[in-house]
Specification:
With about 425 residues, this protein is α/β, with parallel strands linked by helices. It has 15 helices and 18 strands. Strand 13 and strand 14 form a beta hairpin.
């Protein structure tokens, strides 16, 4: 008798981490060479970079509360930061930004930007976000955007502009080079006045320097910071905020998201819905973050990580991308109610009873546990569930309280597993 294959009751619809164009991959592969062209180091200095990177890593992680805020004014640390941390951040951010080109809502937003559009990148450092957006979004290369890049370190901003122009020259067509983005360097901190309102506001790895050193509740910190972000923006502006994929950062980003929703911003990524975040990062709970397989990073970067004693097999990030105004928000909310149930895969695979594999996801139903015999999902994958979502038909996971969704109809095997559960 021919064996029946389990019936799939799902399909994938998008992902957090997206494939990169060939030209973008090539730039990432040779990014150390681009830095070497701008800030050449001899063989002795290159060898010393390993120890400087390790020292800087301690400063940026376990010693983050006591480090000097002006570390990027020190050329030794700045070059090490660009050669290692900026490179890793580009690896994290470019596949996220590549998704802005493919998701209808975000592509429409990118296309709405014009040659007159103003962008603000806060806490720019060496312009990591600006470089990542240029690499990942060809749509934006065709627009003469003006970027106000704000940082306390003019040294970092200067290096960043050089890096951006070098990358732009390597990737842009002749027509695009006639519209190279206008970079305006602004020495200042978050809250520094910019006279023009932003059509796009971005920042990455900036707020972690603030919420680690405060004794105020994160709810208060996020509310204040979200208000400041919105004060920089036009009504329909896009907002991108990324932080390290650790619990406290995930909690902060989740709270920012809630603030944006209260201001009727449409949440485009990574959330498949706009209700209460089921992975809000409260103490002991799950937090929203996405993990990129670090073995896909440039070989030279992996080798540098090993030499510095900082080998990676994964790179994590917590982020949110929002845009829109009240009218657009209300329209989006109305259309979402007609859509099928969407999930966003957030966890690593979990081995379950009966040969099943599970992954925690977020959805409009709250925390969910997607169950299937196969393990063909990655962190950040979007899934459309086509089965019944009536509450009374769902099993509840005893450990987490998550609603369980079976992505394949596996007959008696699933029924047995349900009884065990």
């Amino acid at each position: 008798m021919e064996r029946k294959e389990p019936k799939k009751i799902y399909e994938k619809y998008d992902a957090v981490f997206n494939p990169l164009e060939k030209g973008t991959r090539e730039i990432l592969e040779q990014f150390d060479g681009i830095i070497q062209d701008i800030k050449p180091l001899n063989s002795r200095q290159l060898y010393q970079q390993n120890e400087i990177i390790k020292e800087l890593s301690h400063s940026l992680t376990d010693e983050r509360q006591s480090r000097r805020l002006g570390y990027m004014n020190d050329t030794k640390y700045l070059i090490a930061y660009a050669r290692y941390f900026m490179w890793w951040n580009l690896v994290r951010l470019t596949p996220i930004f590549a998704g802005l080109e493919t998701k209808p809502e975000t592509r429409s937003f990118l296309e709405s930007l014009t040659d007159e559009s103003v962008c603000i990148d806060m806490g720019s450092g060496p312009l990591t976000v600006v470089v990542a957006l240029w690499l990942a979004c060809p749509t934006l290369r065709k627009k003469a955007l003006t970027w106000y890049c704000v940082d306390l370190s003019q040294t970092a901003l200067s290096l960043g502009e050089e890096l951006f122009l070098k990358v732009a020259a390597k990737t842009a067509s002749f027509d695009e080079m006639q519209k190279t983005w206008n970079i305006i360097r602004v020495k200042g901190e978050f809250g520094t006045e910019i006279r023009k309102k932003a059509d796009l506001f971005t920042c990455a790895n900036m707020f972690n320097e603030a919420y680690w050193s405060t004794d105020k509740p994160l709810e208060e910190v996020s509310k204040k910071n979200s208000s400041t972000i919105l004060s920089y923006c036009n009504e329909g502006a896009g907002i991108f905020v990324a932080e390290p994929g650790i619990p406290r950062a995930g909690r902060f980003v989740s709270l920012l998201r809630s603030c944006f929703i209260r201001q009727k911003k449409q949440i485009d990524l990574p959330c498949p819905f706009e209700g209460e975040c089921p992975m809000e990062g409260k103490k002991g709970g799950k937090w929203c973050h996405f993990v990129l397989d670090a073995t896909t990073a440039p070989k030279a970067l992996q080798k540098l990580s090993e030499k510095a004693g900082l080998p990676k097999d994964r790179a994590a990030v917590s982020f949110v991308f929002a845009h829109g105004n009240t009218k657009a928000y209300d329209k989006a909310k109305a259309s979402v109610q007609k859509e099928p149930l969407k999930l966003r895969v957030v966890s690593d695979p979990i081995a379950l009873f009966g040969g099943q594999t599970g992954r925690y996801c977020c959805s409009e139903m709250g925390l969910t546990l997607a169950v299937a015999p196969e393990n063909n999902f990655r962190s950040g994958d979007g899934v459309i569930y086509k089965g019944s979502k009536k509450a009374e038909s769902l099993t509840i996971d005893r450990k987490s309280g998550a609603k369980m969704l079976y992505l394949q109809d596996c007959g008696k095997k699933v029924e047995t597993w349900k009884k065990h559960q």
